């Protein structure tokens, strides 16, 4: 089989991580192997409490592995000083705390702190990098705006611009789309992929947003309790059914045709006739209403939208469901 090579930004080998409280050790992740590639947007997905933030803390050098190591440029993360690491890895956390009266420009300039020290004095090269970060995230127009006076989506772009100004090869974001609407979630993730591709950065995003991640990520890392980390192209993981690792219960499954998680269908004893896309929604509404048995066929037509059951006609599914219940 043909082998393709990609440039490794960061890797973990036989990594075990955990916490110790009052001499009691609690292992969270064990024997993890992974590679984060440059030029890719990687999404880390897994159920609540599986250890995603714990893994991020280890990558940021905030907790030390119990076993194994994380390598950045062939050097263990724990051998880097805080300043050295800040030049290599930029991080955007879920709920960043910055004063609301700080302007977007000032926030992005903070990304240069690892180079300027806390004096924050920017030289012309630093200023160019800040400008480029603003322009790459398409928020130059917000430079003078205060953080308290912009939207959540704009603030998240400003946080990404700050991370970009840090100019490291790796960017890590913990749920960057958590508070955003659908359009902004899509926009932020698309922006991150664009940056990964155009600047050859390795970008790792922790997210629970499977739909958007499928649309935008180059690679998934799937983390589940007690199993090795699964890494691969989202489409490969979907086609091989490994994506179902995200669903510990067999009440849900990933629909290959619709590209999303769905509740496992109960046994139904009715037939619906009509255009496929309409039949899909009629069936969904009936199942959700707990209707599994009907003694006659339902037919549905479009233009005008009409549902027929026995000798009755209904203009909405609401009317049909009320009649059947
Ligand atoms: N500082 C800590 N001390 C002890 N245990 C901790 C600590 N931080 C996290 N844990 C435990 O480690 C486990 C994994 O937590 P972690 O926050 O890494 O999960 P997660 O996958 O990021 O979850 P979520 O999706 O809910 O953010 C949990 O059982 C949690 O209680």
Automatic annotation (TrEMBL):
Entry keyword set: ATP-binding, Cell membrane, Ion transport, Iron, Iron transport, Membrane, Nucleotide-binding, Transport
UniProt-listed PROSITE patterns: ABC_TRANSPORTER_2 (PS50893)
Keyword Nucleotide-binding: yes
Subcellular location: Cell membrane
Main location class: membrane
SMART domains linked: AAA
Domain ABC transporter: 10-250
Membrane topology category: Peripheral membrane protein
Gene Ontology molecular function: ATP binding
Annotated PANTHER family: IRON(3+)-HYDROXAMATE IMPORT ATP-BINDING PROTEIN FHUC
Record's protein name: ABC transporter ATP-binding protein
Taxonomic source organism: Algoriphagus aquatilis
Biological classification of the source: Bacteria, Pseudomonadati, Bacteroidota, Cytophagia, Cytophagales
